Amino acid sequence: xxxxxxxxxxxxxxxVGEGPKPLVLVHGLAANMAFWNLRLQNAxxxxxxxxxxxxxxxxxxxxxxxxxxxxxxxxxxxxxxxYLGIERAHLVGHSFGGTVLLNAAAATPDRVxxxxxxxxxxxxxxxxxxxxxxxxxxxxxxxxxxxxxxxDELEEDIGLNLLEQVAEPRWKETRERLAKxxxxxxxxxWSSGNRAAERFTRLLRETESRADFQGSDGxxxxxxxxxxxxxxxxxGGNSRCMTTANRLREVWPSCRLHVVPGAxxxxxxxxxxxxxxxxxxxxxxxxxxxxxxxxxxxxAVHAEEGG
Length: 307
Known about the structure:
By secondary structure, the protein is an alpha/beta fold. The chain is 37% helix and 15% strand. It folds into two domains: 3-128 and 212-305, 3-Layer(aba) Sandwich (Rossmann fold); 131-210, no CATH class. It has twelve helices and nine strands. The longest helix has 15 residues, at 70-84. The radius of gyration is 18 Å and the shape is globular.
């Protein structure tokens, strides 16, 4: 894979496809660019120049000591656009990746054509992320306790805690066995799971990333209102981020919101056809001539629009 040497980090990236406008995919915490299933990337590549990359400290990008806030990683994103000679791009971000692209849009609005938030939690709209607030929290709690994970349904930010626990070496066999389960996708087979788990553990222990991940997302409500770009939201119906999904139109009234029934937080990795179809529909609505949506592949699962 090619690598881009930026100011203080080396970013691993991949490009596929051609199209009138570039589209950049930004993964979330503990994942890497392989999170974006090849079926999804190939579907998008029929219409776009698709760029995916590993966030700093993830995948095969380098692991500097600092620079892990969404705002700092937004700098990496813009730096990668500069490196690739991309003036403006459509941005798609999953989870933490969504906060990265929003910081990029707020800081450099002239570089962003549109924003697709895939199961992204925004702290201004959802200050806490407690297990008890998940749509299917009782079922999720039973599953977690059955696996002997330490859970407190009232813990204010349970996400990072769960990721760190599941990344521990003692969970190697369980991760492999549950690779298709939504809660364990970050370290499933698609992402060289054991290596990803080891790297995430090292990231938290050897860098300043933990404080950055637990700190501000750089997006107070006033800054969100200032971002005037076309917005699409794609969320899992059983996701821990549904509180954010339900409030997106308070900030962006024209947001195109889609809810994937029965899906959890990591649904793009296991239901890529749904995500690709929704992204292409959104882009086609912005540029109907250049980005017409082709018929979805046979057997593709259709998401339902909610909100």
